[in-house]
Design a protein that fits this description.
4-stranded antiparallel sheet, globular, 22 helices
Length: 606
């Protein structure tokens, strides 16, 4: 068996290492051959503290990012390519800064440290390889036997040595920068309470339109003072007013039905005894869990989307669920354990997406939209292709998202370039793409970046000041309601006298999204801080004014907390360490001398 595994591994792992090591090889090799003088050449894309950043390094990392982004099978939009460009550049700059810090601190890796790391901390590509797994889980003993075998591929051992010669010093730097990070029992207990304590409340939303009807006067002086004291609020990016013809990528009813049928076939296969982990690796679109056989780990209430959570907590241990629809697609779920108010589960996720044949027709229609818009105008093109025509669409750099279209930043940049090149209103764009749609845009008007004048901002300011004044009057009414309840009336009686309704919310936790009261605000604080049966003062949130009366609360389970405390501390410490490392990196980057030649190089290449 070992001979068979070695024979197969030599070939398979060689390919994996060729892919997995390419990025960091550029980092390490580049450090020694690109750090010379200030003379730039076409192979340099920039410099970090005088050290050259090579075009080849950029291309290697960019291709890795692009391959991951294209795993869904769709092409990248122009905006996504820009995002990949920035992500690639930032990673390369950060890597240069990290390696420079390692050298400045004199951090080295001994041969013994490299050997121990290779034996005990497998490379991520190897940890996921089926050759080193048992029942879908990484098998450390199998991995160590392979490395210690005299027949192990020399290329693999050399690859591991080079990898850990870079990685061990990085980990030493990380340890130096994050030493002393500690999470106390008290902090962990508060986090556990936030996740597990629940409250149920009665509440009254103080409806300002009902409590303060009619007009409220706002003077010109008040508008001017607000404008002068909130100057930053009125700075604006470039914006364009557009007419757009939109072909939505949203799945149709037929696409949803096809995905449901696929999920039902997967469910039948699992119910028939198929290996869950193997099916998840083959079928699931959840990149975060598929390589772990669909394993989602252990979670409590409020940590998953509602449909998934309801199904998981209702499902008997070991049973395979019927397909469960969530915003992510159809889930086929199996609960493996239930402990108190926590569940361990795995799933297969089948996305709701267009079928291949439908995609071909859709892309052909998108190409026609561009061609027809250029020749016949945007209105005719929309009618001919069935695209939705939307007029008076305002897109800006500061607020590019348009419902049903997605980010229109690319359209704003096109409009700006059109005006810069001497174009005018009426120009029609090429076909643009977002993650939600294909669209073409006609430029109706363009506004460059600047500050919104007072005359233009005044109506918005006036509405804001009217709301603030009405809220202040509503607060006084709310305080009267609170006084009456504390004086002996019920909340229902005091609210009904002013035409308000008492509603109930919960049970909910401190940390979970709360559609009634919002999240992490004064209303949620009152739900957990005011004694049960008592009424809060008037509390203000971004959603408005509330009076809250807790009617029930459940305490967190201390015994369950003690069982989970070690795992919680490890996770919390890792988060704090990562945050500390990122703060250090931002600080170093801020002080660094970074030269960026991308625009010059790419324009020359074009």
């Amino acid at each position: 068996m070992m001979q068979s595994m070695r024979g197969k591994a030599g070939k398979v792992l060689g390919i994996i290492f060729a892919l997995a090591f390419v990025g960091w090889m550029f980092f390490e090799i580049g450090l020694d051959v690109t750090g010379g003088g200030r003379n730039t050449n076409m192979n340099e894309l920039g410099r970090v503290n005088g050290q050259a950043l090579q075009v080849q390094e950029y291309q290697s990392v960019y291709q890795q990012f692009a391959q991951r982004a294209q795993q869904s099978g769709t092409s990248l939009t122009a905006e996504q390519r820009r995002e990949l460009d920035e992500a690639t550049w930032n990673q390369l700059v950060d890597e240069k800064l990290i390696q420079q810090a390692i050298r400045e601190r004199g951090i080295r890796a001994t041969d013994e440290e490299i050997r121990l790391a290779a034996l005990n901390v497998p490379h991520p590509a190897l940890a996921q390889n089926e050759l080193f797994q048992t029942n879908g889980q990484f098998d450390m003993a199998k991995y160590q036997r392979y490395l210690q075998s005299p027949s192990t591929s020399e290329d693999i051992l050399l690859g591991l040595e080079e990898y850990f010669r870079v990685e061990v010093p990085r980990q030493k730097l990380f340890s130096q920068l994050t030493s002393g990070t500690y999470v106390s029992d008290a902090e962990l207990w508060r986090a556990w309470q936030d996740q597990n304590e629940t409250a149920t409340v009665e509440y009254v939303a103080l409806d300002v339109s009902r409590l303060v009807p009619g007009e409220v006067q706002v003077s010109e002086d008040e508008v001017r003072r607000y404008y002068d004291t909130h100057e930053d609020d009125f700075k604006r990016g470039a914006s364009a007013r557009l007419t757009v013809a939109v072909l939505s990528k949203e799945p149709t009813r037929g696409d949803t039905l096809a995905s449901l049928q696929r999920a039902e076939r997967v469910r039948a296969e699992l119910a028939g005894g198929a290996d869950f982990a193997e099916v998840a690796k083959r079928e699931s679109s959840d990149e975060g869990s598929k390589e772990r056989g669909g394993d989602l780990g252990t979670f409590g209430r409020g940590q998953m989307v509602p449909a998934f959570e309801a199904a998981a907590f209702a499902l008997p241990v070991g049973e395979i669920s019927q397909p469960v629809l969530s915003p992510f697609g159809y889930h086929v779920i199996q609960v493996q354990e239930k402990t108190g108010d926590r569940v361990k589960a795995r799933h297969v996720l089948i996305p709701v997406a267009k079928a291949d044949e439908e995609l071909d027709r859709f892309y052909a229609k998108a190409d026609s939209l561009e061609d027809l818009a250029e020749r016949n105008g945007i209105e005719r093109a929309a009618r001919a292709t069935g695209a939705a025509l939307r007029r008076d669409v305002t897109a800006s750099e500061s607020s590019p998202f348009v419902p049903g279209v997605g980010s229109t930043l690319e359209a704003v940049e096109w409009a700006e370039q059109t005006i810069r090149d001497g174009g005018k209103a009426g120009a029609v764009s090429e076909l643009l793409e977002t993650d939600q749609a294909f669209y073409v845009a006609r430029l109706d008007a363009f506004t460059p970046e600047g500050t919104t004048p007072l005359a233009q901002a005044a109506p918005q300011i006036r509405r804001r000041l009217v709301l603030e004044k009405k809220q202040e009057q509503a607060r006084k009414v709310g305080q009267q309601i609170v006084a009456q309840v504390r004086g002996g009336k019920t909340l229902q009686q005091a609210a009904a006298a002013r035409g308000l309704e008492v509603r109930q919310a919960g049970p909910f936790t401190r940390g979970a999204p709360n559609p009634a009261l919002g999240q992490a605000n004064a209303a949620v604080g009152a739900a957990f801080g005011v004694p049960v049966g008592k009424v809060s003062d008037v509390v203000k949130t971004s959603a408005g004014l509330f009076i809250v009366r807790p009617v029930a609360r459940t305490a967190a389970d201390r015994k369950a907390f003690e069982a989970q405390k070690g795992q919680m501390r490890a996770m919390a410490t890792a988060r704090l360490q990562q945050a500390a490392f990122e703060r250090w990196l931002r600080s170093v980057r801020k002080k660094a001398d970074i030269e960026d030649y991308r625009e010059e190089r790419f324009n020359q290449s074009a």
